[in-house]
Amino acid sequence: FFPAIENINLWSSTPNLNMNLYATKKTAAEGMLDIALFLANITHMKTVIEQGAGYRYYAAVLTLISFSLALQIVAGVLIIIIARRDLNEEANQKQLDSLNNKATLAIFLIFITNIFISVLGMERTGLFARMHF
């Protein structure tokens, strides 16, 4: 009698939302951001190495950048594993939730590490370096 009603999911505001497609797109976007941060950290590491050991926080910043890069590799591998699994299969959901939590923790640690990298990596250059605030 009402054929359109059978396609409506009462628990979702969007009818027939494909959760696997949504999760895959979200994971791909997360992976692209991880790649961008990875490249930024490599560039920052190159700059620190070029400044040499005379740089005030050379060892600390180099260690933090290395730690961040290692965490980004771990997060990237987790993101690839998550993206390759089907969220719609009930057997995968518990494992995907666990992997997603681990990826979230890795990304949070990357975030905190990069805050320290930014704080320690601030170097006075140019005109304002001579003004000694």
Automatic annotation (TrEMBL):
It comes from Fundulus heteroclitus (Killifish). One of its GO terms (biological process) is cell adhesion. It is found in: Membrane. It comes from the Eukaryota. One of its GO terms (cellular component) is membrane. Its main location: membrane. Keywords: Cell adhesion, Membrane, Transmembrane, Transmembrane helix. This is Ninjurin 2. The chain crosses the membrane at residues 55-83, 103-122. Belongs to the ninjurin family. Pfam families: Ninjurin. It is a multi-pass membrane protein.
